[in-house]
Amino acid sequence: MSKVYYVGDWAVGCGPLFAETPFNYTWKGLDVYYYGKWLKAALESDGHHQVADVPTWDFYNLAPGAYEDILATHDLLIFSDVEAKNFCQEMVAALAYVMRIIGVSAITDAQIKIPVWTKD
After folding, report:
1. Using N-to-C axis directions, what is the helix angle for 66-73 and 89-102, rounded to 10°?
2. Closest CA to 49 of 82, 69, 78
3. pLDDT, tens digit (0-9, with 9 covering 90-100), for 94-108
4. Burial 3-30 (b: 16+ CB within 10 A, else e)
């Protein structure tokens, strides 16, 4: 069974926003949206993949060394709607190192320029 680490496709909707005075405003509502449930279900449907799905904010707040552990223990990384600023230089260097050592290929979405890496 291959292990998939899937980051992104979550959102938090805040609002609507009410300005009750020129100095006071209040958010009236908070919703969490998980757009990735369909992709996760499709990947797991044949029983060949185990998917760890992670909101971008959890990925951004990983503890030191956790990213390297993810690279070492997962066969496929999917980043969907993840901004490049979520990756620090150390993460990019670790990923490049692992790609060279274990021989992986990158498939890049040209529109957002965030790669998805898979083992060959």
Report:
1. 20
2. 78
3. 777 777 776 665 555
4. ebbbbbbbeeeeeeeeeeeeeeeeeeee
